[in-house]
Amino acid sequence: MFTSIPSATLRQLVRLSERKEALMAQIQEIDRQMVRVQNRFGVPSLSAKQGATVTVSRAVPRQTRHPRARRGALREKILQALSVAGKKGATIRELSTKLSVPPANLYVWFNGTGKKVRGLKKIGVAKYRLIR
User: Fold this and answer.
1) CATH number for region 73-130
2) How distant is the alpha carbon of residue 127 from its chain centre?
3) Over the stretch 92-111, which tens digit does the pLDDT of each residue have?
């Protein structure tokens, strides 16, 4: 197990562990001093019977994922929206809000798949129309 760790790293780990032990001893001594001061002035200390209140944070339930769309569903949605838009076309932002699709997905679609679709024409900055 330790054969693959260099000896310099092992030495460093030993030094760190010794340092940790020394710090833990200092913390224990500080705790003892605090108890002595509390006892001298009559400050009640937390005993094991009382204990501190512990709050447990629950993991946030994961949102259920949408079922995966069938192949070509985005293409159909985009082409339908562009045919409704007519000659004036539609911007990616408009399509994004209409189709409830992140704009980044649409940019990628237009730069990849969209170039292969016949009748799809870029008419401006991030603006497309369907010519049929």
Assistant:
1) 1.10.10.10
2) 31
3) 999 999 999 999 999 999 99
